[in-house]
Amino acid sequence: MPLLLPKTLFPLDFLKPIPSFIYLGGPIRGGADWQAEAIDQLMAAMPDCVICCPSRYTQEHRHYRHRVSGDETYFDRQTDWEDHYMKMAALGQFSGERSGCLLFWLPREDAAHPRPKSLGPYAQDTYGELGYWRAIIESQCHKSRGPRIVLGIEHGFHGFKKLYRDFNRVASGNFPIHTTLRETVEHAIRVAA
């Protein structure tokens, strides 16, 4: 299972057949390491899946050994890298094929290790990303296949009710939102297959 970490550019086009591609979107600082749990579930269910994780894992992390190497200088900033691979997962922008999913998991803030106040509010970048993707969903709602996005929100996440209303409003009440990471990952596996 190839694991893409920031800011590696990995040429997915040479992989044949094109594997499923899943991007793990959601809070990093203050959100505990929910990404590692999602990676465990994805590895068990889809061992050939390419997983893109924006966490800056170091050699000490148990999943670092799955990291693929590539060009580390292509992207100037991590946010450029994130945008590139989120689009690839949600819109299938490689080799003209659609085999992927943008998975968002929004855990409540970790009480033991919250986001440092000096870095701003918890999940601030994630809220912006969700607004962007909600607009994409709304602009493509008339098409038979819009972006491939799965959303899970843990009870206690600030803004749960508003996000639920907003996503269901733009999707005409037909946007499932999960409340456990396991359900969210299972749905992403079905979407990405």
What report would you give on this structure?
By secondary structure, the chain is of the alpha/beta class. The chain has a single domain (3-192), classed as 3-Layer(aba) Sandwich (Rossmann fold), CATH 3.40.50. Helix content is 34%, strand content 12%. It is built from 5 helices and 6 strands. The chain has helices spanning 34-45, 78-91, 124-139, 160-170, 181-192; strands at residues 3-4, 21-25, 50-52, 100-106, 149-153, 177-178. A 6-stranded parallel sheet has the order 1-3-2-4-5-6, with helices on both faces. Helix 1 links the parallel strand 2 (21-25) and strand 3 (50-52). The mean pLDDT is 90.
Q: Could you say what the CATH topology is called?
A: Rossmann fold
Strand-residue proportion:
5-15%
Structural class determined from secondary elements: alpha/beta
* Element-level helix/strand string: EEHEHEHEHEH
- Number-wise, the strands total 6
Mean pLDDT across all amino acids: 90
Overall number of domains:
1
What is the helix content?
25-40%
Reading off the top of the CATH hierarchy, the class is best stated as: Alpha Beta
- What is the terminal separation in angstroms? 15 Å
Based on Cα principal axes, name the global outline: globular
Q: Which sequence of strands runs across the widest sheet?
A: 1-3-2-4-5-6
The biggest sheet amounts to: 6 strands, parallel
The CATH architecture assignment turns out to be 3-Layer(aba) Sandwich
Low-confidence stretches: none
What radius of gyration results from the CA coordinates? 16 Å
Number of helices: 5
